[in-house]
Amino acid sequence: MSASLVPRPTDMPMMALTTAEMFVVMSLRLRFIALLHPQTHNCDWQEGLVRAGLGNGAIVGFGRLVRVIATASLHRLDIRWQCCSRLGADEAMLLHCLRLMQSRRMGEACAILHDWLCPCAVRAAVGLSETFAQGLVERSLVLDGGDDDSFPTAAELQAERAVRSLH
């Protein structure tokens, strides 16, 4: 993996993502829809994870991680509908966090979670995201895209999100 892990920019076209990144984002969107609209959107968000061969621990960890993000975020989330062709800010943040964990850069990944979630949720989110990140690696779903210097830094993504929350 590259020494420089730069986050994906918000609003980038989904078609520019790697297969592994697209898999994570679409799984996130399905899980989020199932959380927000359990009565009207009866989707099996786990099916894709099972078909990809992820273990039960990674699947359960992912489901719980998304629940933690949905309930403990410090800001209004930017997770897009399944059919949206552009990447949301929090989708980009999750990809970046998981990429850092896959490359064993736990300090940086934890810093993202500290900035993203209320303090009481960070510990749980660290363990859940690490379990999911490792489950992805075990199935050769390595999140190694986006190492172009033209992409914004994590600080720039945070500033962009802060400005958006003021509107």
Could you characterize the architecture of this molecule?
The chain is mostly helical and 167 residues long. The chain has one domain (14-166). It is 59% helix and 0% strand. The chain has seven helices and no strands. It has helices spanning 19-36, 47-51, 56-72, 89-102, 106-116, 119-138, 154-166. Helix 5 packs across helix 6. The chain is globular, with a radius of gyration of 15 Å.
Radius of gyration: 15 Å
Per DSSP E runs of 2 or more residues, the count of β-strands stands at 0
Specify the number of helices.
7
* Percentage of residues in strands: under 5%
Main pleated sheet? none
- Using the alpha-carbon principal axes, give the shape: globular
Fraction of helical residues: 55-70%
What is the helix/strand order?
HHHHHHH
What's the layout of helices and strands?
Layout: H1 19-36, H2 47-51, H3 56-72, H4 89-102, H5 106-116, H6 119-138, H7 154-166
Helix pairs in contact: 1-3, 3-6, 4-5, 4-6, 5-6
